[in-house]
Each structure stands twice: as structure tokens, then as C-alpha cells.
């Protein structure tokens, strides 16, 4: 069973990152500067490193040893049984351009996506806190959330534009409302709350750090998820591995959207 202090550690990391990012955003000069290449092979912005450094500091001072997997630094072994799976800033482009839709995502597990036991996603500008614990449900700002199981005639879908969507998405475009918001963990979390009916990323793009917390939040709320081929998603603790994702409020909505994509 996951120790209560580990859950508090994850929540504390997420809250501290939000506080620091909001503080720095008052004077954002330099936050969009590239400061290196992350372990996932993508450029690391100053804002990403700032947030990740907070997590490293928290874990180094933790009484319970917990490892870290982050898209910027990769895997840090602190000798723990569990590993924190961190996306320090999900929606970096939104953050550095002042678009108020970006998040910090923190999950904890042992070996893979399937065994993630706790997750928290915080909408940094609004302060909304999504969290879930395996077998104990999902919550938004402390209130339990359950996905709506009715299927809308025209679902509201948030997408990641790509060539695969251009190839498969023509029918969906005619039978749904489309948005593109730019922060996968937050978009999937809003699917869990019912604000969005479906999130679609058809290219092999998302890492375990992007989705670990949000997938647990969605499943614990009663939502359904698969990859772009309709298969169950499973990923190791490895930031170089990527997946496609279709996440929906219910199995029936997932099947409807998938049929429109096929």
C-alpha cells in the first residue's frame, strides 16, 4: 500500500511548482529560453528546469526515498521502491506565451503505467486540482467526480493536430465540436470531469510523463481510454517511449468517436 507521506510528497511537489511558476510568471523574461535537451530528446525551456529543480529538491529531502522520472532529467535513482513520474510543465508553449492553460502533472508508481497508484494534475493558472488514488476514486478540488455515461450527439473533442488526424478525422469533424488546447494531462483530466467529452492524439507523441497522472484520474472517474489503434495503453517508466491516445468520458463515447475516426 502506498504510504500516506508519499501521496503528500507528490501533492506538495505539485503545489510548490505552481507557486514558483506563478511567481516567476509576473516577470517572465527568459522563461522561454532553451537551456538544454531533455532526456526525452526535446528542448528544455528555463521554465521546465525551474519546475523540475523544485521536485528534485523535495525528493532529496524526503524522509522516504522516492525515485524520479522526468522528461527533462530522465531517471534519478534515490533508492526508493516507488518512482515519481513528473511532467514539470505540461503545455510549456502556452505557459511562456501567457495562454492560461498549462499544468504540472505528478504521479507515483513502480514499473509501468498500469501500476500507477496516485496522481495529481494542477491547472497552474486557475489552481484547479485533479487527483486520484487507485481504487479510491477521482476528485476535483476535493469533490468526487464521475464521468457522464451518456453519449452526446455531437461530442466536444480536444485534439492534437497531426497528419494522422488529417487522414482519419474528416467524418469526426462533421459530427463533433473540435478544440485544440495544448496540454494533454489537463485535457484528459477535464474529460474525467465531463467538461470535455473526448481527447484525441492520433500520433505516437505522448510520453508516460505526459499522461500517467491523468490516465489514473480518468479511469478512477469511470472514463475509458485506448491508443489510436483501439488497444489498451501500457508504457514502461521510460521517457523515450511514446503513444497515441483516445480518452473519453465513457466506453460508448469512445466507441462512437473511434467509429467516426475509422
Any descriptors?
262 residues; alpha+beta; D-Maltodextrin-Binding Protein, domain 2; 8-stranded mixed beta sheet; 5-stranded mixed beta sheet; 34% helix; globular
Question: What is this entry, summarized?
Answer:
The protein is of the alpha+beta class and 262 residues long. The protein is built from eight helices and 15 strands. An eight-stranded mixed sheet has the order 4-3-5-6-7-8-9-10, with helices on both faces. The chain has a five-stranded mixed sheet with strand order 12-11-13-15-14, with helices on both faces. Strands 1-2 form a two-stranded antiparallel ribbon.
What's the gyration radius in Å?
Answer: 17 Å
Order of helices and strands: HEEHEEEHEEEEEEHHEHEHEEH
Which class do the helix and strand fractions yield?
alpha+beta
As a percent range, the share of strand residues is: 25-35%
Number of strands: 15
What level of helicity do the residues show? 25-40%
Overview of the molecule:
By secondary structure, this protein is of the alpha+beta class. It has 2 domains: 4-145, Fructose-1,6-Bisphosphatase, Chain A, domain 1 (2-Layer Sandwich), CATH 3.30.540.10; 156-261, 3-Layer(aba) Sandwich (D-Maltodextrin-Binding Protein, domain 2). The chain contains 8 helices and 15 strands. The chain has helices at residues 4-25, 46-60, 92-97, 163-168, 170-174, 184-193, 208-221, 251-261; strands at 34-37, 43-45, 67-70, 74-76, 83-90, 103-109, 118-123, 129-133, 137-140, 143-145, 156-159, 177-179, 198-206, 224-226, 243-248. The chain has an 8-stranded mixed beta sheet, sandwiched between helices. Helix 1 (4-25) packs antiparallel against helix 2 (46-60) and helix 6 (184-193) runs parallel beside helix 7. The chain is globular.
Amino acid at each position: 500500500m502506498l504510504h500516506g507521506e508519499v501521496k503528500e510528497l507528490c501533492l506538495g511537489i505539485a503545489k510548490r511548482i505552481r507557486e514558483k511558476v506563478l511567481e516567476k510568471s509576473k516577470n517572465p523574461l527568459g522563461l522561454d529560453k532553451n537551456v538544454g535537451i531533455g532526456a526525452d530528446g526535446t528542448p528544455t525551456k528555463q521554465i521546465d528546469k525551474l519546475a523540475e529543480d523544485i521536485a528534485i529538491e523535495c525528493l532529496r529531502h524526503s524522509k522516504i526515498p522516492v525515485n524520479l522520472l522526468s522528461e527533462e532529467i530522465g531517471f534519478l535513482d534515490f533508492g526508493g521502491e516507488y518512482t515519481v513520474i513528473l511532467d514539470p510543465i505540461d503545455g510549456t508553449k502556452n505557459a511562456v506565451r501567457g495562454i492560461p492553460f498549462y499544468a504540472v502533472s505528478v504521479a507515483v508508481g513502480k514499473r509501468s503505467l498500469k501500476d500507477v497508484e496516485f496522481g495529481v494534475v494542477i491547472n497552474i493558472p486557475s489552481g484547479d486540482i485533479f487527483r486520484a488514488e487507485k481504487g479510491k476514486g477521482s476528485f476535483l478540488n476535493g469533490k468526487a467526480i464521475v464521468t457522464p455515461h451518456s453519449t452526446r450527439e455531437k461530442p466536444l473533442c480536444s485534439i492534437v493536430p497531426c497528419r494522422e488526424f488529417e487522414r482519419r478525422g474528416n467524418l469526426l469533424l462533421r459530427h463533433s465540436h473540435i478544440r485544440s488546447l495544448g496540454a494533454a494531462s489537463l485535457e484528459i483530466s477535464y474529460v474525467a470531469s465531463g467538461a470535455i467529452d473526448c481527447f484525441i492524439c492520433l500520433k505516437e507523441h505522448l510520453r508516460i510523463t505526459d499522461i500517467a497522472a491523468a490516465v489514473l484520474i480518468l479511469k478512477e472517474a469511470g472514463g475509458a481510454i485506448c491508443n489510436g489503434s483501439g488497444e489498451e495503453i501500457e508504457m514502461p517508466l521510460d521517457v523515450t517511449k511514446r503513444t497515441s491516445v483516445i480518452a473519453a468520458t465513457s466506453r460508448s463515447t469512445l466507441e462512437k468517436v473511434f467509429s467516426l475516426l475509422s
